[in-house]
Structure formats: structure tokens, C-alpha cells
Amino acid sequence: MAYVAVKGGERAIDAAHAWRAEARRGDPAVPALAVAQIENQLGRAVERVMAEGSLHDRELAALAIRQAEGDLIEAAFLLRAYRTTLPRFGASVPLDTGAMAIRRRISAIFKDVPGGQVLGPTTDYTHRLLDFALLAERAPDSAPLAEAAEGTMPRVADLLAAEGLIRPDQPGSGEPSDLTRAPPAYPAPRDARLQGLARGDEGFLLGLGYSTQRGYGGSHPFAGEIRMGAVSVVIVPDELGFPIDIGEIVLTECQMVNQFAGSKTEPARFTTGYGLAFGQADRRAMAMALLDRSLQAGELGEDVTAPAQNAEFVLSHADNIEATGFVEHLKLPHYVDFQSEVEAVRRLRATAAAAAEPVA
Amino acid sequence: MNGYNFAYLDEQTKRMIRRAILKAVAIPGHQVPFGSREMPLPYGWGTGGIQVTASILGANDVLKVIDQGADDTTNAVSIRRFFAATAGVRTTTRTAEASVIQTRHRIPETKLTERQILVYQVPQPEPLYRLEPSRTESRRMHGLAEYGAMHVKLYEDISRLGQVAISYDYPVMVNGRYLTSPSPIPAFDNPKLHLMPALQLFGAGREKRIYAIPPYTDVRSLDFEDHPFRPHRARAVCAICGADQSYLDEVLTDDRGGRMFVCSDTDYCAGRAGAGA
Asked: Is B142's Cβ below 8 Å from some Cβ in A?
């Protein structure tokens, strides 16, 4: 018989995994990547995987990147699948980004601001010329040191808010929602939207944020402030009842300031969009801030017409673990459904052919 | 498996899922939102079905996993191995021996019994999504039992094509109340949903919904009096066991139009072939 029932799924899976493991390691004559190397030298990748994996752990993110051979969505998936098994023993008190130990802080809406403009370790003004010198190992010249800024730097949006020019953030409703524990419900409150954006796919956030700048739900944004640096994480354990500093994490925070002409219920003033991301991630934080603002359209009485203003659309499609799973699942066998479609198409064609027969 | 709870999920999560299942059983066909967890298998590979199975599995259960009706398709193998590793339960390919059957895209040919549970992997639990993409809106339509749009879709098919053009994931009314997706089973399988003695649970992980059809529930495929629902199968017999009532896969045997038909349900086919049918 020409057809042999396909038995061999088990052996095929084992062989595929073994081949993958071999391919992952690459040429054994080349030294293997150490997780610490990835953690230290591929920091932007580590931070993106931590954001999309929703878990701040640089070492595990680096491990995931190595295991995923640099496929960052796959790495975020590995991190998520681990994260979901972890017990949650508490939530931190809200981070005080105003007290951030600033490494970078810029505002595009003032020439100078209290605390000054601090470029930090940015690539913004590099010329994108491949540095062939990096092909050979070479230690970089040490960067010049500057005096650390005295005290804390006030947030630019707070300076505007003091004048009443900015619509104040609306208070949340008690406990923050958690999309990883409860299914999303619409209309989604802002905390749920921010959580969805914070773990959303960077490319998706970027593309949709970009769409708002090209007229699909425009919100006239200005980069009020982008700041990056270390922030203390503080928890108040139930059994102790007082705050404990458990360490610090590096964050990028972006506050977009948007024009708002006012509506029937609101006077004209500026509104804000908020973005927050692990590590140094201007692009991610800025795209998130654009979307946070466009998703406030309904609350501000603006017309909701563009995809970027529709929370159900944005949040349902921002998660790249969900998206990659469902897109890629098309490679699983679908031959039963396809068979029923083939039969249906044959039936439809037969019906059409019979109808086309000339009546004798 | 070291470091993981029985059947992977922690007990709190299982309780949450069981509560959703109980609610789903109490309201047949209604989609119950649940706090779907991230699983170590990708979305689209059956994370909903896996979470449901993990939540109902006991140490004495015997598990069967099929994909496209077959036990030996790679994804079925992978999921069966997952539970063998994380729960250590006995697995089987025999439909009659299993107490829990997780399936993708088929209902077994062998009649199921009251002591069995059938767990479906569901990619898209919302039967109205092609007509109304907003789940906020489709929830409202379910609340009001406002299903005219689906009847119009069927009517348009009949008026344009002479027949309903849905060949799988054919919508059903469960218990006369909720329009429900039977998951992408071929329409051929739809009649098996009706008054099935086994409990049928549906898990959609990515979409975070669970729904159920309790034993002996009335399940009707949507149709019209003058255009009754008709299940279809290939007009052929199985080349291996000779079955003329089972759902058949069409297998291309060469590049000159050669083809053969074989049962999609491998256990059913092997049982008949072994019995000399």
C-alpha cells in the first residue's frame, strides 16, 4: 500500500529537539556564549525580554535569550512560562520615579528645565556607521565623569501641573487590575491598559503609536520628558507593616504632553500619555505613552475612530506571545478541517455545474 | 516532575479554573471568562484544553489525547507527554479506556459514556466573531440572544450558493439558549454533540474563555426548516478498515492524482482493522 499510517511522531519530536540543541550551540570551535556576556553586552535585548516577559530578572532573561538563540519573542515566552509558576507574595508601593537616580533626562518642550538636560548613554546623536573596529576586541576609551546632580530632579509634567495646565491623572479604583490573573474586561480601566501596553510587543506598540502621528487618531504629542535611571522598589510586608527597600531597578519613563482643545465636559488644557519600561528603552516608553494617550480618547469625549484609540483592539493584539502562538499554530495539522472544506468546495462546484447545464 | 505541582498548575489556579468550569456547566454554552495562565506550550497549541485537563485530572485518570482524530500526530504526542511528565497519569490511545480525552478538531467515532469527559481545544470561542469582531458587542448579543446576524449569514449562503458554506466550526444552539462554537470540528461531528452522555468541556486559553455542554444536553446545529442541517463526509470507504460511516482523511499517494481515503480516527480504524472488519 502506498500509504503508511504516520507513526513516528514521538521519534520525530525527539530528533527535532536534538537537532535544535546542536544547531543552537553552533560551531563547537567557537567559544560558547556565557549568560553573563549576554546580560552585560546585550542589555537592550535583555530589557526588552524582561518587559515582554513581564519579569524583572536580568540573568534569567539572558538565559532565555541564549536558549532561544536570540529570538526575543521566544525568549519572552520562556520567561513568561516560568513567571506564571511563581507565587506572588505582594505588590510594591508605587515607584517614586521623581526620586530616580538620573542617568538620562531630557525634555523636548523646554530649552532648559530645573535639573538640566542630561543626555546620558544615548545613541541619539551617533552616526549609524558600522564600527569595523568592533570586529576586533578592543576596550573602549573610558567615558568622562561628571558630578552627580544634587538632589532629585522634578518631573517636567509636575512643573506644568503646578500651573493647572495639565489635566490631573484620575485616581484609580483601589487595587490595580492584573491581566495575568483575571481576563480583561472592556471598557478597560487605565491601569489595565497600562499593564497591557507595558508587556506588549515593542513592534506593535511602535507601529500603532506611529499611526497616531500619521493621522489615525492624532493626539499632537510632545515629549514632555524622558528620564532613565535607577529607582528603589519598596514593599510593605503585611507581617511587618513598615516599608522595606528591597533593591533598585533601572527604568525609562516617558511623559508625553498632548494638546487638548477641550470638550463639552473638559476645559482646554494639556493631557498626558505615560510610558514606563525596564532598562533603557526610549522607543518602547515613547510608543507606550503615545498609545496611553490615544486610548484616553473615550474618557476625554474625543471621537473614537482609529485603531489606536480602541482599547479592545489594541490590548487584544498587543501581546506577542498570544499573537505568535496563534499565527504559528497554523502550521499544526488542520487536515480534518481542510478535508471538510475540500468536500464543501466540490459540492458547491457540482451544484454550480448542475445549474449551468442547459435545460433540454 | 521535580519543582512542579501535580499536572503543572498550582492548586489555587486549578480551583479558579474549576470554579469557571462549574459555572460553565451551570450555564450550558455560555462563555465564562477565566484567568487563563501562561503555559509552557504556545497559544494555539491547546493551552485552554491543557488548563482544563490539568484542573480536572486526578491521579487515577486515564488520559487520551488526539489531534485531527489521531493519537500519533505530533501535537497530540507532545501534550500526552506533557501530562505523563507533570501528572504521571496513565495514558492510552483507546477511546473506551480513557476517562479524560483531550481533543483538537474531532469527536471520536466511538460513542462516549457518562464516565468520560471530552476536553476540546478551542482557538476561537466566539461563534459571532466573523460577523462582529468586537467581543464587547458580541457579549451583548449573547446576553440578548440576538442571533439574527448568524441566521442571515446562513440565509445568504443558501440564497447565493444553494447551501450553507460552513464546513467546520459549524455554529450550534446549546440548550436552546446560547449560540456556541463547537470548536473547529468538521460539521460531520456536530450531531455527536447532541445528548452526548459524556461531559464536554471547552477551553480557550488565548481568548481566556471556558464553556461546557453538560451530559445529555440538547445541541442543535443552526438550520432552517426547509434547509435542514446535513453532515457531510467524503463519499468513500476507509482503505484500511473499510468503514463507510466514519470521517475520512484524503491522502494524496502520488503526483498523478492518486488518492486514498482513511479514517481520521486512528483508534477507531485500528480497532476495526484488528477485529477483521
From this structure: no
